[in-house]
Amino acid sequence: MKNSRQGGMTLIEMIGALAIGSIMMAGLSAMIGDALDDGEGQQAALYQAQVVAAARRYIGANYQALLAATPTAASVATVDIAMLKAQHFLPDGFAPRNGFQQTSCVLLRQPVPGSGKLDALIVGSGGQKIADKNIAAVAAGAGQGSGYIAEAAPGTARGASWSMATAAYQGAKCPGAAAAALGGGADDGGHLVSNLFFDGPGQLSTDFLYRNEVPGRPELNQMRAPIHMAPGSGAEATENDAGDARCTVAAGTGKVAVDAKGRVLSCQSGVWRRQGSGFWRDPVESFAALPAGDNQPGDVRMVLALGRAFSWSGSQWLALAVDQDGNLSLPGRLASRDAMLNRVVVAKTACEAGDPDGTMARDASGLVMSCQFGLWQSQTNLALQASDTACAVILPSSVAVPNPDCSTPYHGPRNWYQEVDTWEAEIKRQLTPTKNGLINVNVWTKMNRGLANNDKVSGQVRLQVDIVDNDTGASIGHTDAQSVRIENSSATINATLSKTVQRNRTGYSVWIRPAWTTFEGPKPPYTRASFRSYDGSVVEQVPLSTGWSMDLFQ
């Protein structure tokens, strides 16, 4: 019988092949999963690094405001992604969450209030937790200061070379967040963190001033604080020092230093010089030493021998003495040994159209003249500028008075002074000089203290006159007059006052104060005065009146 051999695979071989294939597929699936996890972790790490870089720039730009927002060690300021975008530290299209859907929040505090040093922790919250077996590897790719919070220790943030408890930051919410970024519980685990000051508090790094322009980044060439060039250090130089090797070398021009008093110097043509105005140049000894070249219109130099400044017109040096019309205008006082007035005018003739009041000239004899109210007048002549003549009935009669000395009623106050048993009225008149001048005042007061049917009445009258400077309220001139006791009779007193005055802002007041007494105490002022005429009739009089004539000369 002939034996035949069979080909193919046995059942056992098939089962073995399938087992090997299954093992290989499981390994391949694990490798694919790990690769996907690695990619997601790398993206999360890159996201964290970008947020940290933006936070660093934000702190530099808002440093003072952040210090003010953290006045105590327990104060925690917060900054979210939207705030970083608003100040353009992150692009507008930057995602609000990382690949694990975790939301980043910057937490800042001042561990030592008033020290000016800020600690910042950038933490993720919410979203999908990163497993403890993977989180350290993810954090390692998040750049300087990176770390994580493990699920096994949710109250501690760890980095490659640092570890810190998060208690000081717990409870702070980023704007718009429903919950605190850190709560201290299990929810904190599985999230990335970064510590900007990983090497100790206040160690904010990499805020440099670039020497060269960086396109699109002008802030990298900007200082946000004063530069301190410290006197007494290598930054000090001596003004006008032409032997300093730091300045005499060819590459020295343009160097900046300070002198011992902190004044800024720059190296110019091998010499340290102080900086002045952009148009004021170095002084020269004489007019002949004024340079003819290397000038710009408007440049000014002082000639030391003359003590005068000269300006470069573009073609020559001109003295800074007169304006474009040949006129000299000074904001303060002019002092000179003498002055020559070459313009000759005639007194009382009209000033020219361009001559304001106060313009000075002279007449043919040399007498100084000035333009006053449009006319040339001598400085020594005074003309009447204003005049005031009037009267007032201080105490009117209760009955009609024929042909009174004054009929203008007085409407001012009548004040009683008990300590001197006296009544007093007050009249004020205004005079306003337009230049220095003279005020003359003549005042009279008449008291009629008699009654045709009673010879026992008596009285006395006093008159005070003052010239008062309205600007200061002070009296610059005073006079007074007083009658003897009047027994059933009449008396008139006069007062004269003359005072030179200067032009001021609000002028002068002449105060006229007639005072009287009837020796009857605070009775109402009397309202009747009369005498019996030769034919036996009763003649009524005004009890008390005053009048004045005042003139202002300029």
TrEMBL record:
Record InterPro entries: N_methyl_site (IPR012902), Shufflon_N (IPR007001)
Protein name as annotated: Prepilin-type N-terminal cleavage/methylation domain-containing protein
Limits of the Bacterial shufflon protein N-terminal domain: 36-230
The UniProt record lists the keyword Zinc-finger: no
Protein origin, superkingdom: Bacteria
Alphabetical keyword list: Membrane, Transmembrane, Transmembrane helix
Positions of transmembrane segments: 12-32
A Pfam family it matches: Shufflon_N
